[in-house]
Amino acid sequence: MKHRLTLRDLWNGFSRQIWAVGATLLVLFPIYFMVVSSFKTQAEYIANKWGLPHTLLLENYTTALAGGKFYQRFANSSILTVGSVTISLIIACLAAFAFARMKFPGKRILFNLILSLMVIPPVVMVVPLFVSMVRWQLVNTYQGTILIYTGLLLPFSIYLMTNFFQTIPHEIIEAARMDGCSTLDVFWKIMLPLAAPAVITLIVVNALWVWNELLIALVFLQNDDLKTLMVGISSLRSRNYVNIPATMAGLTIATIPIVIVYMLGQRYFIRGMTSGAVK
Amino acid sequence: MRANKIEPFLFIAPALAVLLLVFGYPIYRLVVLSLQTTTQGKQAFVGLSNYQIIFQDDVFTLAVRHNATLLICVPIMVIAALFLAVLLFERIRGWQFYRTTLFLPYLLPITVVGLVFSYIFQLSGVLNDILNGLGLKFLALDWLGSTKLALPTLMFVIIWKEMGFGVVLFLARLMSVEEELYDAAKIDGANWWQLQWNITIPQLSTVIEFFTVISIVTMLSWVFNYVYVMTGGGPGHATMVTELYIYLMAFQYNHMSLAAAVSVLLLLVTGIFIFLELYLRDRSSVMEALG
Predict the structure, then answer these.
(1) What span, in angstroms and rounded, lies between the C-alpha atoms of A28 and A25?
(2) Beta-carbon separation of A94 and B129 below 8 A
(3) Which of A127, A255, B33, B211 is the most interior residue, by most CB within 10 Å?
């Protein structure tokens, strides 16, 4: 069938673009507003709320970085993110290897049980975890919070890695076995290197989750020196006097790492996020 | 594989240990706690009276009703995401750019998003500035400050942030639908609506189910951040939700047992969806392969 461009096609293309552009503008406006406001003085912000700033004022950024223990909070968020993502990755890979390539009684039930934990909202666990953590003296410690995050990350991590390990052909493992590799050798030298793309996906998705998490951080790290970036940001709202442009500068700084990671690892992101449902 | 009997358990032992510490034991503690009360520093068993107390609390029933109201977001999100995914799937110019941008909100911290939106929706905020500029003064309302509008405004922000996931999910699935299906139907003279109704929706049914379940669970139990950052449950109790109720009960009023009772109820409700979720997953290929 030969296709001729008709007026109707043109109109269809045009109306589709309008929908897409409309949705995109709606998505981008708050981000635009945040970035633009961060370059304005307070007076300029009040006079001109959504236009471009007259000058690229950097003062708000120095204010945001100077006040409110910014570096400390940034460091705390980083420690928690790196710690829990690393530990959960190692533990999840070990378990996933067993689920994907070993036979043992109760495997299916156990795997289902772990999967079902994915849906449990953290808020349900906060009260009993707090009671337990007080008893174990782990409130207001990095270790305690990392333990909780690791636990919350595990179900999805085990699911994703099991899924991936299944795609690695049996023959490769058998061949390695013939060469005298132990199970642990097979795991370290063959499975993990082959799973690199899945591992990257997992790191990116999990790191983002921990970086953005608020509730657990709020409850388990109440000591001012231990507060995370998101907890620090969330407390800005309740202040009576707020320097909006400086706040926006702080928000922009907190968002930049995420946007960079997203831009670099976009395909890993989309794969990771959709792996739960799309085969 | 010639693995011995203990070996698999050595591999899953660390995971099991952490999961027991973070999920297993606390869930047991949670149930026990919800049946107890603390009097003069001592725990005493009180049966279901904590549950009776919370059901008599108007704030709790209000919170539950608000969570139910949030469910309105689910069909809106599913339909809008489906529409946008189909739009991008038809390879309109720049579809990859659109996909990247539409997914962006899903990745941003709710804390940041919530704060930015609370400045946008302020009485003297940008939105009202723009509305006034357009001569629509009557529409320039106190979006987060009025009891009537606060919840719908919150819903808008939730949709804004969560919808991109649906778009990407649906688009990813659409990409694997065989193109011939569409071509054949077009030759038969099907119009655009018929194509979507007869091909897109049936082909996407599993991901649509998945996204719907995930979104329902989100509305019932993952909206704490939005409320905490944007309204704190106010004005009055206009945006009080179950999660915030648990948080305030436990950490502001120090009624751990009451908070535990609400948590148990929320766990039971999500439990229903866990089963739904498992049922959906059971049909996917992982489980088949695991055997």
Answers:
(1) 5
(2) no
(3) A127
